Amino acid sequence: MAVCAAIIGKDNSPKYFTCLNPDEELGFQYKVLSSLDVIEEKLNSGNKSVSDTRELYLGMLYSLEKHKIYGYVSNTKIKFIIVIDSTNTSLRDNEIRSMFRKLHSIYADNVCNPFYIPDEPITSKSFDKSVKHIISGI
Questions:
Q1: Model's pTM, two decimal places?
Q2: 2-136, which class in CATH?
Q3: Quick one: which of 136, 101, 131 has its CA closest to 6?
Q4: Nearest to residue 74, comparing CAs of 98, 36, 108, 121?
């Protein structure tokens, strides 16, 4: 389904990053971090009073030749980014929303852990396993 997932903090610092193919990790990091500009543009555009009731799912941020990049922002300005392979035409918008909701849910469970230090990168092996399970679609 997806080839990469990332969680970016409210100060645009990476909290978590994973790829199904570790050999392409650097290229995906570049794509994910460059999508932050599009996210900021979407968040800052429009009426300020409407932004409080905004949709968390931002939709497709941009499309490249081989990949499509989707975004989701929580109420606390935590950014979730998923990179999808462009050849995967069977993946619908509601399935991508579902992936983001699941990712947000396990993120919330992880930060509620009393041993998690706020604003630190996520290094939990069980969290990593859960995210890879979500993005691989198993």
A1: 0.90
A2: alpha beta
A3: 131
A4: 108
Q: How far is CA 109 from the centre of its chain?
A: 16
111: Cα separation from own chain's centroid: 16
Q: Which of 74, 67, 75, 78 is nearest to 135 (CA)?
A: 67
114 in helix, strand or coil? Answer: coil
Residue 60 bridge partners (DSSP): 70
pLDDT of 68: 94
Three-state secondary structure call for residue 80 = strand
State the 10-residue block means of pLDDT for the chain, 138 residues long: 92 94 92 93 70 75 93 94 88 90 95 90 94 87
Runs of H (alpha helix) within 66-116: 93-111
pLDDT at 48: 56
Helices 93-111 and 125-136 cross at an angle (nearest 10°) of 170
